[in-house]
Amino acid sequence: MTRRTHIIGAGIAGLSAALAVTADGDDAVVYEAAPQPGGRCRTLQPSDGFTHDNGTHVLFTANGHAINLLKTIGARSQWFEPEPKGLPLYDGRTGEMQHVGLSPWSWLFSSRRPQGLTLPDLARILRLVLTAKDCPVASIIGKRPIMDSLIEPLTVAVLNTPAAQASSQRLACALRQLLRPGAGRLLVARNGLSEDLIEPAVATLEARGASILTGQRLRTLLTSHERAIGLALTDRTVMLGPDDRVVLALPPFEVARLLPALPVPTIFEPILNVHYRLRGLAHPRFIGFTGMLAQWALIRPTHVSVTVSAADAVIDQNAAEVAVRIWRDIIPALRGLGLEVASDRQPETRVVKEKRATIRQAAEILPQPPLRPLANLALAGDWLGSLPATIESAVMAGEHAASILRHVRGTRSPVPRNRPMTTEDAA
Ligand SMILES: Cc1cc2nc3c(=O)[nH]c(=O)nc-3n(C[C@H](O)[C@H](O)[C@H](O)COP(=O)(O)OP(=O)(O)OC[C@H]3O[C@@H](n4cnc5c(N)ncnc54)[C@H](O)[C@@H]3O)c2cc1C
Predict the structure, then answer these.
(1) Mean pLDDT in the chain?
(2) Does ligand 1 lie within 6 Å of residue 29's CB atom?
């Protein structure tokens, strides 16, 4: 009887788990509730042709696991560095544009240094990087100009949590990674998240014989004697073989619904994205903002995507009004990059609100379940562990789940007699 790994959730964590399982030559099936794989990394393709991602996702060359995943699926060349000369940073209060290096080493050059960065600031950033005790980022940096011009936007970009609450230790993990030579290059998908990440991952899995079944929500997990024994999905029930294993690559609220005894984080932070359909730039550009509601924008050939992270203050506001406000804010910055935009005419606009974009990564001990709560079941997802909840942590969690199940022993005890009516036994 073939040993099969059943992976629930086709987000980055689930796809990474499936890639790790199939790399070992094992059999994997992925079940996804949504009509398309990708989870929080996806491209929206409405019938009117205005195709855009849910939100702009950036990777750093420091994200070794994510970069290796891109190599595995043959998509590394589809992620490129839009701003090799330093990130253009537009200050909405002064109207000034500067270029800032993303690697702390580049701050040795005054042309790449964040505005107003002083030696005492560097000492505080160093304290943050070396911090042993977790505390809010803002409590280490204090009320200094660098807070507005660098630390707050950086914290919100990495942790999707305001610096007043955000965990210094999680941010320090990211900063330590950026310190490695060559690690601070910012990458974006050339065409979009589905084309440059999700579709190549699915194609690689299918070439290895794995199946990805969409529209299959795990409604109930059937368990017996501390083992998963069956999966009650949207239109079928799959009973597990004695050697079968399960990865729940799901957000924490779904894990808590399926296994209510497990402790999981319960507080989330939203991200709001606004996409403006216009003739952009043939070569995509990326720009950061300070002193404005939005934190960054990606200018693609057909549209401009603007991101507001830690968007609690606006997530429940009227979407059209928020989009108007952001459009007015960003016009001078877009013109600064050479884009011809009329101030009296706002382009066609789409707003995507992700209310539970990530867990809130505050300076407190977040509830964490055991990574293998049942003998043949492991958890995966960006929210597990103490790293920033990003693509990188989702990849790591998926790979880790596959590795902790690798040596799990099967059971010879028979499957219970009272099996549900619709069954599709695992091979
Ligand atoms: C707008 C936005 C911008 C972001 N920007 C960045 C960025 O710049 N850089 C970065 O690294 N990260 C970014 N992130 C975070 C990144 O998207 C996530 O960390 C990552 O996608 C999480 O992957 P995951 O597999 O852990 O979870 P998910 O993507 O949430 O995957 C879980 C999957 O499980 C499915 N599912 C749920 N319940 C069930 C069920 N019962 N049965 C079957 N399937 C189910 C869901 O539909 C989903 O596909 C951003 C997130 C958002 C929302």
Answers:
(1) 93
(2) no
